[in-house]
């Protein structure tokens, strides 16, 4: 059997942002634990039209994101902290998941969802972390016990690795908890099918 699918959603429209690099490290950590991963980076999120549930129907990108979440065993969200909350592109991506509202498993129902926030200061990081966790609850997901709130300044070296061990540990902890809960959920669902 293949490993759980962990979907990473986040970043900023700026390629190589601290937020996106943190998300990539988290997905690598999940892969090291046996996961299959899928990344929806800031570049992808920027192409999503503003969500409009009107009669025109979803764009190809909107449908692609919704299907990936339908297939996911776990989610990792990464956002910069903008004025005490998540960025517009990440919020629009989450709004897009309204496409799953009539599914048998809507939104993030039953999924573990890890959160990584990069911000200029601790106040913005903490406020954003709480805002995102509130959204996860509203979307019926299970926020992991640990959420990473990182200082965006001087976070990575030239190769994309964390400069500080504690920052690398925060990112790894988010990924490990998503994996742990995703594996438990899969085992439970497989047991119920027997």
Strand content: 15-25%
List the domain count as a whole number: 1
Individual helix count: 6
Give unreliable regions as ranges. Answer: none
The overall pLDDT, averaged over residues, is 93
Shape: globular
- Radius of gyration based on Cα positions: 16 Å
- Specify the CATH homologous superfamily: Flavodoxin domain
Assign the CATH architecture. Answer: 3-Layer(aba) Sandwich
Q: What's the total number of strands? A: 6
Q: The biggest beta sheet, please?
A: 6 strands, parallel
Oligomer: single chain
Helix content estimate = 40-55%
CATH topology: Rossmann fold
Q: What's the helix-strand series?
A: EHEHHEHEHEEH
Class from helix and strand fractions: alpha/beta
Termini gap: 16 Å
Give the CATH level 1 class. Answer: Alpha Beta
Tell me what you see in this structure:
The chain is an alpha/beta fold. The chain has a single domain (5-193), classed as Flavodoxin domain (Rossmann fold), CATH 3.40.50.360. The protein is built from 6 helices and 6 strands. Strands 1, 2, 3, 4, 5 and 6 form a 6-stranded parallel sheet that branches. α1 packs across α6 (165-193). The chain is globular and about 45 Å long. The mean pLDDT is 93.
């Amino acid at each position: 059997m293949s490993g759980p699918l962990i979907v990473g959603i986040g970043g900023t429209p700026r390629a190589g942002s601290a937020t996106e690099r943190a998300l990539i490290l988290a997905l690598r950590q999940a892969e090291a634990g046996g996961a299959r991963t899928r990344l929806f980076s800031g570049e992808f999120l920027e192409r999503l039209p503003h969500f409009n549930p009107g009669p025109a129907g979803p764009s190809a990108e909107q449908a692609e994101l919704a299907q990936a979440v339908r297939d996911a065993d776990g989610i990792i969200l990464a956002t910069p902290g903008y004025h005490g909350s998540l960025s517009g592109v990440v919020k629009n991506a989450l709004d897009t998941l309204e496409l799953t509202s009539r599914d048998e498993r809507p939104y993030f129902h039953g999924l573990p969802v890890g959160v990584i926030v990069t911000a200029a200061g601790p106040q913005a990081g903490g406020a954003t972390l709480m805002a995102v966790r509130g959204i996860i609850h509203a979307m019926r997901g299970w926020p992991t016990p640990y959420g990473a709130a990182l200082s965006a300044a001087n976070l990575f070296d030239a190769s994309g690795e964390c400069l500080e061990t504690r920052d690398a540990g925060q990112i790894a902890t988010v990924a490990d908890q998503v994996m742990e809960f995703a594996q438990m959920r899969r085992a439970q669902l497989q047991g119920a099918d027997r």
